[in-house]
Amino acid sequence: MNEEALEKLRQLDWKEISANLLLAASTFAVRYGWHLQSALPNGQSLRGVVQETISDIWESPERLNPDVPLPVQLAGIVRSKLYNLAKSPDDDVVRTGDLPVLDTASATKSPLEETARLFNRAMELLAESPRVKGNDDRELVVMAMAEGALAVRDIAETTGLSEARIYQVTREIRAFYPTIGEQLRREEC
Fold this sequence. Notes:
Blueprint: H1 3-10, H2 14-29, H3 46-59, H4 70-87, H5 111-128, H6 136-146, H7 152-159, H8 163-174, H9 177-188
Helix pairs in contact: 2-3, 2-4, 3-4, 5-6, 5-9, 6-7, 6-8
């Protein structure tokens, strides 16, 4: 094992990283009809996928690319794991689309509705951010994401920006996530 890589991992704020990664995982999970409390195929959960991802990095820190920010790499691994789970057969799992319709008069918001509400609020906060306002490319990307374009190809189609530019802009926007997450936490309290 690479001791230098392990030492770099030890110095990071894993509480913040795991919280942001769980937020990213819940955003990716919506694509497959899942939410934070969903039972995923093969007995997995979103929290479990995040923990497994972090564990994988600790087991093989040499896998990390020093030129790519760690949160970006972790989010990519989570996205890949969720995609693979979505493609795996598991007849015991009820996906959100298969759930019976509830009487909304007697039921509180479902976790999926709550996830969508938080996502929409996060997009509003991003759009209102002074670090986004006034920057045409950032504004375009945030608007596209708010409309449901989360894949680079979809954002490119919606905005007309090149995929290379979208990768750059989304990296810039990700730097604002901790601030937006803190604003959401304050609003929820």
